[in-house]
Write the structure tokens for this entry.
Amino acid sequence: LGAPGSPLIAFEAGAGPLYRQIYAGYRAAILEGRLRPGERVPSSRALARELGISRLPVLNAFEQLLHEGYLEGRGGSGTYVAALVPVRGGAGGPSAAMARVPADAPGAQQAAAHAPPAPTEHAAFRVSLPALERFPRATWARLVARNVRNMPLSAMAYGDPAGEPALREAIAAYLRSARAVRCEASQVLVLPGSQMALQLCARVLLQPGDRVCIEEPGYPGAHQAFGAAGAKLHPVPVDAHGLVVEALAPASRAVYVTPSHQYPLGVSMHAARRLALLAWARQHRAWIVEDDYDSDFRYASRPLGSLQGMQHGANVIYVGSFSKVLFPALRIGYLVVPPELARRFVEERSALDLFSPTLHQLALCDFLREGHFVRHVRRMRSVYRARRDALVEAIGTRLGTQLQIVNSDAGMHLAAWLPPAVDDLAVVRCAAKRGVSATALSTCHAGNAPRSGLVLGFSGAAEAEIERAVGMLAEAIAECTIPNRPRRASRNPPHRASENVL
Ligand SMILES: Cc1ncc(COP(=O)(O)O)c(C=O)c1O
């Protein structure tokens, strides 16, 4: 193809589903300026005819490109390339000189101002808890046992600090196809979770006193990792399209973002905002740390492409984890770093801990390569969608006036605002007394929280339990509401899943 509005799309056998190849072809053509803002793209019917395929993959690809903001529909007049801020692709990667010497004197600055009440560990609505009972244990046991039996003696000795080479290959292949990450196995480091990944970023990229921009509200784990390395945290507000790029502080060394699914509010960053962030980072010679912690689970569209993959040589460090998609006790996460920094990261990793346990890396590698992973993700997507629906509906019927859902399009949790007079820490304590776990939104703020709210995980509890726990939560909120009298259950209609009230 090469007609106006059509990039060259050469389908490759084994390069993934057709819709994904069309999506990738268009995304690359738009980002590289081969398709310009305002250019009209062919109708799905015409493109399908030209490509000699059915219309469905084309429709799926266009739907995703529209959702991510690369294309825009104009009423009845067709579909056009969206007006994105152009970013000049730089030659070569980010300079290794931008990396810093290790922070050998970890600073004392702790980000989290409030000590959160102890969570009720396994109850609804514990955040970050997968449907553990649905994990294919028998398959996992088989793969672990097989690897124990077959492990050569060399695999029982000291392992590679960067991770088992076969697992690094499998992760790189998955990230290239499922997340549009630009990477080779040599850029992947296997680590015991994203918490160490963030610590490592701090050790390699920062010196004590460096400024790091963080999302406000944001992920307390990131505040802790960067704060403990002596960074000065600069909170940047988040709106309905994610981090507000214009509010980034100049002279920052790094910015931590969750663009696919902002933690905790749940919004996703549109293409134009992503390009603005990449341009900002290039201009200010700052690093972007992209935490893509739960992006396999989207209910309103397919998983979004990564920020890392949008531009060749972008200054992005990509962080991922198997904690949510498989189970947290596995303690396997990973980093994708620019090639010129790989050695530095591996050196620092060895300084923190020599290497990750080999046995579970080998079992995970088989789990990925033999298709169990993709199957599990597919199953969990529908399990979590049903749990999300149950929570949204129960909130609508029981708590419609007291809890306003921010966004529930994706992930394993949702955030919801409480009425202004209600203290979220008090609600969390009252809920814990009733055996219900919730996280106070105020604990995700590095500064003062302007609004109180709750972060509710829905993935770890079945629908019936969710319904029951929403009843308990309603009681807890009523107990903490001034004047202190119980409210009647609301009869308001449920929030729509895609409702966005930021
Ligand atoms: C924003 C975010 N990043 C990363 C993680 C995963 O952390 P880890 O891989 O250390 O278990 C979580 C889990 O709660 C999270 O919420």
In short: The two ends are 41 Å apart (CA to CA). The first strand starts at residue 40 and ends at 41. The chain has a mean pLDDT of 88.
